[in-house]
Amino acid sequence: MKLEILHSTRYRYSGPIAETVMEVRLQPMDGNGQRRVDFRLELSHGLKARTYVDGFGNHVHYFNLVRPHSGLSIISRSTVETGLDPDVDPGEELVHDFLRFRSPVKEVEGVHELASRRAVDLSSPESVEQALDELTLTISREFTYDRTVTNVYSSVDDVLALRAGVCQDFAHLFIAVARSMGVPTRYVSGYIHSPGEKIGTASHAWAEAWVAGRGWIGFDATHPVRITPHHVRLAVGRDYTDAAPTRGVYVGSATGTMSISVKTHAVD
């Protein structure tokens, strides 16, 4: 499958601000079943971004706007081919980094309770995959998708208390429980194209678990499914903080708002 993606982020401020410093992870990844065909980043104010590759293999664009401004727009246009064969050698240099806990992925009692519901034999890839498939279904059944109850700063214990959240929260919860089982697991930010719709709107998050002998396998607890050719990977990391599509700060006393629009289009 080939998908075209238009991702627009717009910032508006109540008055002029002096400076914005920002980095974005909007360039789709290559490998593990997908190939980036094209990518363009358009910034307002004539800005030109610089780039680097972070420690997780994500392509990061960064820029600094140092003159007064009351708005900023970031538009990315991507074409990605999905549904390809997985990597022959997916690599495992950082696998053990994805067993460690830190906020928002916390090792709390509710996480241990979910992990204890299913026995897993870490020496058996089949046992690991079955346990993670069951975890995907458990989160979908027992937690309600609700945009109003959490925010980007919510942690796993918040989600456990509320029994609700969004895709970011469910990814964090899945990661925490899988790590508690002893399975290295990482956060994925990206998109999902809605099946049956020529044009859809979605930004998304899920988790990938390292299964020995099989590499990284994606699990989407929101829907709940293993990842499909409709999923597009932007960035990976230990949690949302490492893989956020946009992140930055500004200098000024004005208040700001952000609006995001994502459109995916299946190319025949």
**How many angstroms does the end-to-end distance come to?**
8 Å
Percentage of residues in strands:
35-45%
Shape: globular
Rg over CA atoms, rounded to whole Å, is 19 Å
Number of domain modules: 2
Q: Low-confidence parts, pLDDT < 50 over ≥5 residues?
A: none
Structural class: alpha+beta
Q: Describe the biggest sheet? A: 5 strands, antiparallel
In the sheet with the most strands, the strands line up as 3-6-1-16-10
| Mean pLDDT across every amino acid position | 94
Assembly classification: single chain
Number-wise, the strands total 16
* CATH topology category name of the largest domain: C8orf32 fold
Q: Total number of helical segments?
A: 5
Q: In sequence order, what are the helices and strands, one letter per element?
A: EEEEEEHHEHEHEEEEEEHEE
CATH architecture of the largest domain: Roll
CATH top level class name of the largest domain = Alpha Beta
* Helix share bin: 10-25%
Please describe what this structure looks like:
The protein has 268 residues and is an alpha+beta fold. The chain has 2 domains: 2-84 and 245-267, Immunoglobulin-like; 95-242, C8orf32 fold (Roll). 19% of the residues lie in helices and 42% in strands. It has 5 helices and 16 strands. It has helices spanning 109-116, 125-142, 156-162, 167-181, 240-243, and strands at 2-17, 19-24, 34-43, 50-53, 59-65, 69-82, 144-145, 164-165, 185-192, 199-200, 204-211, 215-220, 225-226, 231-237, 246-251, 256-267. The strands form 4 sheets. The protein has a 5-stranded antiparallel sheet, with no helix packed on it. Strand 12 and strand 13 form a beta hairpin. The chain is globular, with a radius of gyration of 19 Å. The mean pLDDT is 94.
